[in-house]
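Input record (one chain):
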Amino acid sequence: MVGCEWRRTDCRRDERNSTQLNTREYIWTLPFGRFIIRFCGTPRLMGKDGWSWLEGQSACCVHEAGSGSRGKMMEPGRMERRFGALLAVVALLAPTWAGLRLVHGEEVRDLPNVVIFLIDTLRADRLGGYGYPVATSPNIDALAREGVLFRQAHGAAPWTLPSIVSLLTSTFPCEHRILADGQKLSSKQEPLAERLKRIGYRTAAFYANPYAGKISGLRRGYDSSRQRQQTGGLIVWQWLETEDPRNFFLYIHNGEPHNPYLKRQQWMRIFGGVSKAVSRSLGLETRQLRRLTRWDFRNRVPIGTTDNSKAQRRLIGNLDRRRGDYSILYDGSVRLADSRVGEVLDVLRQRGILDETLFILLSDHGEEFGEHGGWLHDQSVYEELIRVPMVLRFPGRQFAGRIVGEPVSLVDVLPTIADFLRRPRIASAARGRSLMPLIRGEASEASAGSGILAMRLNKKKYYRPFKESRGDKNVLVRHGQWKGIWNAEVGTLELYDLRRDPGETDDRAAENKALSDSMKKKAASWLTTCESPWEETVPLVAPELDKESEAALRALGYID
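The corresponding structure, as predicted from the sequence alone:
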């Protein structure tokens, strides 16, 4: 077998014209005795056909395998005499190899960079591009004008851990079973970074939420992976300084606007301002509420063992009365998150690679402000929690300004990337579907606007009114404008007409029995099939927390 890779290198000084050749060279490991042959040619960019070698004789050096040296320069004539037959084959294949990277047997030719910029806890309806009248998102709105905006994108789960595993593996929570702290991705499940690395991409991740790192197994596949409080333009610029600006996959996961909102005064003033005392008070109350909802999980007893619903109800009432202040705090954090998006886009523009990049902006889930009785997240699959923004900016602003109105899921992102790259193999075993037909206008609403989009499998929180009315297994199923929520444990289906009732306040299941029964049957069958291979969940173990991860989880309120 022949092994090959591209490497950027200073090959040698050309003695004929005394110019330094900063070149890409092929490094071939050949079954030819103990020698390794290194070809050094001056590359020339030939449009979409990639790199071609400069006409004329190319210098070549040969060294013994394992010598560790760059080898001795060999004159072309001597080289041809010694390796004549081999070089003849190489010469015949050289045009095919020009511009090609072979890694583990797969090809990469002129593929774009891929950037996923995930903003934790960002509701779609708090962005200008989704109709919000307040100026929270000038940079994201500008990005949407240059790309494709999905009006009805859905996170696969209502909180971070299962949602980002679904995003990066294109499987639903009932398949990957990463549902609570301490559960880690199976070695049989291949995240996006591993898939892209397999076809030659350099890979890196900067993440604020530790669930996106090693404690859940999502660090796999990255050449570099760093936990950072926030990532903006400077970090990306510094990273690009060490990287070839082609064929990279970069995953950014920022924590804003995840609460608590304690240090955002310069952004809050844009929306009316909230005093530090009020901000601190709301932060303490939301932290107390989260602690109460996770009381049994934290103490490692079955959820529901302790009923502290009365204390939770009191805190919920306090938050309901202060919804206006909370909303300002949230909007300020969204504006901060938006500024970081702008910084990263500016860096890519300044380096001249934005138009060579597929840039994907999205969120993992939203946030509740008491619309259906709850606060924070993970307690339902209503729109405030499950509907997320998603914008795809394609290289060269292809499809700019297009709006897709059909319901889609984050499990569709991985297959869409594979389709756009024309590498269908990296979407193997993906549960989602490519969205490229929708983007190109080739799929109809009838074919795209139905199906399972998200689910909730609760293993952490307990609030008796929600347990009794919803249970812990909820499946979101869509049929055109109709949204069904199958509450599997209590055996009910809620039905909402989102066109007339986007706030999901009027359950129409009783008066639409045929549609309700059809959606119930579909959701129940899907859930049974999805769960059937699993006799039990992935074992819960104490997560491996370094001090940095522990501090980050504590700051986000996930641990006490």
